[in-house]
Each structure stands twice: as structure tokens, then as C-alpha cells.
Specification:
Keywords: Glycosidase, Hydrolase. This is 6-phospho-beta-glucosidase. One of its GO terms (molecular function) is 6-phospho-beta-glucosidase activity. Belongs to the glycosyl hydrolase 1 family. Its EC number is 3.2.1.86. The chain has a single domain, classed as Glycosidases (TIM Barrel, Alpha-Beta Barrel), CATH 3.20.20. Helix 2 runs parallel beside helix 4, helix 6 runs parallel beside helix 8 and helix 12 runs parallel beside helix 13. The protein has an eight-stranded parallel barrel, surrounded by four helices. Strand 9 and strand 10 form a beta hairpin. The protein starts with 8 loop residues before the first strand and ends in a 6-residue tail after the last helix. By secondary structure, it is α/β, with parallel strands linked by helices. The chain contains 14 helices and 14 strands. It binds 6-O-phosphono-beta-D-galactopyranose. 6-O-phosphono-beta-D-galactopyranose (BGP) binds next to loops. The site of 6-O-phosphono-beta-D-galactopyranose has 14 residues, from loops.
């Protein structure tokens, strides 16, 4: 018997820039994702200053969903998806971001996509900003370091919330908004379009940009509810619980602070206010941030309806010599291996029980419905002699996570809306910019060099997940 509620949203998740391709079709403008080259499995992606001829920009074609979507939606329907999570590319709607009028061809593309999904009984779940924004806004305005972004983003959001008011019910504002708190160049650029210059304080800039994003998010939540009171609008957090390396109280305290430092953006979006420890941190560090009374008022009223989150791995932390009193060493935590866990080919710790922990942690802290909008295993897939990918390792990963998710619902009483495995159709990895880090239940014939027929084929995990959906998670 199923342990999950009726109407549970089984689905699959992707993001526009990682799978659509068509980077310059239908009047689309250049986005920040379009100026990121492929990296390698050990080397970070390069962010170029505008387009550089001859560079390999894997997001440009990606898997060309733009020209394959009718065929793909058919496959999604065959899988039995109840919902499909993707993002709207801001640059299809406002190619530069600061125009007055939207681009009709871009709006029409999503109309056609949503109509096709709905005709197959698949509910669209839409992220407004998934690691991309118009590159023009970065060049001309400096990205989210500039308060002007709030106005541009709200304008973009108004256009799409109004246009799709009767087609899309589930929305999220910023994908993995807390991803930038790690303070590396990649996190700051993909989330906020910010490249740090030598004379800037990365930490202060991150807090400022994130503040503007939360204000924009709150304004959009409020506006969305006015446009259609039926809308469910969530935040989207990257969730990776941090455990203490030892039972030493200072390690436990550090793990706790690491969690606080990872999820204050959820505090703001769910509770409508900054946590006390962070207000004090700003004071102690003399960060004179641009946070106005009007901002705080909008944060208080623009709280979200649910928490969408990604879950891939857990982490471990331990104290270092001369640990500061506030335990804050952003981006400098030594990596500690968890001896209890195995790792993926990319070194991500595989921790199904951590998903149950995460669900409980969010549920207790915010008492809101939750939605697992990303989870999955990035792996090298090889075809067997029969020409099929027998990805038992992926089935094993998903099964163990779904088991823990069901315990969280059935035993712990967590309110869970749905589960959408990440990259359920192979796509470009956000981190490496490569194709060979595959998450899909559907294989796409394309390699890291950009060569392939783009043919879609079902992996073994496709049939397995189809059965899981058909039994509402009873038959794993
Ligand atoms: C999340 C992002 C996704 C996705 C996923 C897997 O951080 O929201 O866009 O790519 O991680 O990461 P990667 O592609 O680097 O394996």
C-alpha cells in the first residue's frame, strides 16, 4: 500500500539553460549561462567576458529540447510523470533584461510547451531564476550587486505570472538561492551574476546581493498571490545537512552554525525576517548593508507557501585551530570525509538517511509543505552488449532515497508535495559543463565534445521509475 498522499507530484526536474539549447533562437538574448565554457571533472568552468569565438559553450545547444520538445513530452507522458519542473529562461522573455516590452516569440515557446504538458496531464512546476539572467544586466549594471535588479526581475516575473496564470500553478523564485553563500566565484556568478573585483569584499557583496534577491522574491510572492490566489509559490534551497565530525561540543556547535549559515535565506523567505545571529554578525563586522525599513516590511509579508529543495549529499565539519567565536569561516571549511558513507564518481557523499534528516529539519523549523525538486546520481553510463544502459546503481540510489522520503511522510508526519529527480533526461552538468556526468532515466546521445545524434533512449531506470509512479511509491 502506498504511504504517500493521493495527488503526490511525481515528476522530473531540469533547468532551461542546461537542456533547452536554442541559445540564440526565437529572439533569445545572451544569458550568463551562455558565457560559461565546459570545465572538466577536476577543473571549474571558465566564465568568459562576453562570447569568445572558438570556445566550447556546451549550454548553447545542450540537448536541444527547444526543437525536440514535442517528442520529449511524449516520453515524459510515457514515464507517467505527474509534473515537470523546469525554468523559464529570462532571456527568452527579456533578451537584455531592461527592455520595456517582452519578446513574444519567447512567451509563445513556453505557451506551446505548457499546453503540450497539460494536454498530457503533466503539471508544469516553474522556477523563475535557475542560475541565469541576461548577461547585459551583468555588463551594464553589475548583476545583483545593484538594487535595480529587483525592478527588472519583478517586471519579468509579472509578465510570466500573468501570461501563464491559468497554465502554471506551482512556482519557485530563485533556484538554490543559498548556493552563493559558499562565496566561490562560480556560486556568486551563477546565482547573482557577480564577478568580484580585487577591491571588493566578496562576503559583504554576497550578503547584499542575496538581500536584494530576497526582496525581489518576496515582492514576487506577494504579486503572484494577487495575480492568482491559487498559486503555490515556493523558495528553492540547496539542502545538504552538515554533521559534526566528532561529539566534541565545539564540533557540534560548528555544525549547527554551518546549518544556520546555510539556511538563513530560508529563514528570511519562510519566516519573513533575518535571524538574530546574522543581524549581530552584520553589526560586529560593520557591514553597512543597504537594507531599508521598506525592504524589511516586504520580507515580512512576502513569505513562501512551500519549500522546494535539492538534496544530493551530506557534509561533515570540524573545528580548526583558533576557531573564531562566531564559527564563521565562509568558504573555508576543511572537507572531512564521512567514513560511514560511500561517494559518487564525483565524490558526492551518498546519504539516503540524510534526506529523512533534511525533511525533518525543514519541517520542524518552518512547518511548511516541502517539495523535493532535485535528487539524483550523476554517473558515467556505459551501454551494455544489448545496447541498453543498465543503470542499477541509479535505481539503487533513487530507491534508497525514496524509502527514506516515505519514512519521513509515514512515520514522521512531514507534509511532502512531490519528488522530481534531477536531470531525469540527460543534460549538461551545471558544475562541470559536461555531458558525461549523467543523471537521466532517459539517455541522450551526445558526448563531451558536443558530438552525437541527440537521439533519446530509455535506460533501465526509466521502466523502474514508471512502476514507482504507477504504484504511488508502493512498489520500489
Ligand atoms: C544543482 C542545480 C542543478 C544541477 C544539480 C546537479 O545544484 O540546481 O542545476 O545541475 O545541482 O549538479 P551538477 O550538474 O553540477 O552535477
Amino acid at each position: 500500500m502506498s504511504k504517500l498522499p493521493n495527488g503526490f507530484l511525481w515528476g522530473g526536474a531540469v533547468a532551461a539553460h542546461q537542456f533547452e539549447g536554442g541559445w540564440n533562437k526565437g529572439g533569445k538574448g545572451l544569458s550568463i549561462a551562455d558565457v560559461m565554457t565546459a570545465g572538466s571533472n577536476t577543473q571549474a568552468r571558465e566564465i568568459t567576458d562576453g562570447l569568445v569565438p572558438g570556445k566550447n559553450y556546451p549550454n548553447h545547444e545542450a540537448i536541444d529540447f527547444y526543437d525536440h520538445f514535442h517528442e520529449d513530452v511524449q516520453l515524459f507522458a510515457d514515464l507517467g510523470l505527474k509534473c515537470f519542473r523546469t525554468s523559464i529562461a529570462w532571456t527568452r522573455i527579456f533578451p537584455n533584461g531592461d527592455e520595456n516590452e517582452p519578446n513574444e516569440a519567447g512567451l509563445k515557446f513556453y505557451d506551446d510547451l505548457f499546453d503540450d504538458l497539460l494536454a498530457h496531464g503533466i503539471e508544469p512546476v516553474i522556477t523563475l531564476s535557475h542560475f541565469e539572467m541576461p548577461y547585459h544586466l551583468v555588463k551594464e549594471y553589475g548583476g545583483w550587486r545593484n538594487r535595480e535588479m529587483i525592478r527588472f526581475f519583478v517586471k519579468f516575473a509579472r509578465v510570466v505570472l500573468e501570461r501563464y496564470r491559468n497554465k502554471v500553478k506551482y512556482w519557485m523564485t530563485f533556484n538554490e538561492i543559498n548556493n552563493q553563500t559558499g562565496l566561490n566565484e562560480w556560486g556568486l556568478f551563477t546565482n547573482s551574476g557577480i564577478k568580484i573585483t580585487a577591491d571588493e569584499d566578496a562576503e559583504k557583496l554576497m550578503y547584499q546581493a542575496a538581500h536584494y534577491e530576497t526582496v525581489a522574491s518576496a515582492l514576487v510572492v506577494k504579486m503572484g498571490h494577487e495575480i492568482n490566489p491559487e498559486f503555490k509559490i515556493g523558495c528553492m534551497m540547496a539542502m545538504g545537512p552538515t554533521y559534526p565530525a566528532t561529539p566534541a561540543p565545539q564540533d557540534v556547535m560548528k555544525a549547527e552554525r554551518t546549518m544556520q549559515a546555510g539556511y538563513w535565506l530560508a529563514d528570511i523567505q519562510c519566516k519573513g525576517k533575518y535571524p538574530n545571529w546574522l543581524k549581530r554578525y552584520f553589526e560586529r563586522h560593520h557591514f553597512a548593508l543597504d537594507i531599508t525599513e521598506a525592504d524589511l516590511n516586504i520580507l515580512a509579508v512576502g513569505t513562501v507557501d512551500y519549500i522546494g529543495f535539492s538534496y544530493y549529499a551530506s557534509h561533515v565539519t570540524k573545528t580548526t585551530d583558533n576557531e573564531p567565536d562566531d564559527y564563521m569561516t565562509p568558504g573555508q571549511n576543511p572537507e572531512v570525509k564521512n567514513p560511514a558513507l560511500e561517494r559518487s564518481d564525483w565524490g558526492w557523499e551518498i546519504d539516503p538517511v540524510g534526506l529523512r534528516y533534511a525533511l525533518n529539519w525543514f519541517s520542524d523549523r518552518y512547518d511548511l509543505p516541502l517539495f523535493i525538486v532535485e535528487n539524483g546520481l550523476g554517473a558515467f553510463d556505459e551501454k551494455d552488449a544489448d545496447g541498453k544502459i543498465h543503470d542499477d546503481y541509479r535505481i539503487d540510489y533513487l530507491r534508497k532515497h525514496i524509502e527514506q522520503m516515505e519514512l519521513a511522510v509515514d512515520v514522521d508526519g512531514v507534509q511532502l508535495m512531490g519528488y522530481t529527480p534531477w536531470g531525469f533526461i540527460d543534460l549538461v552538468s551545471a558544475g562541470t559543463g559536461q555531458m558525461d556526468k549523467r543523471y537521466g532515466l532517459i539517455y541522450v546521445d551526445k558526448n563531451d565534445a558536443g558530438v552525437g545524434t541527440l537521439k533519446r533512449e530509455k535506460k533501465l531506470s526509466f521502466d523502474w521509475f514508471k512502476k514507482v509512479i504507477a504504484t504511488n511509491g508502493a512498489d520500489l
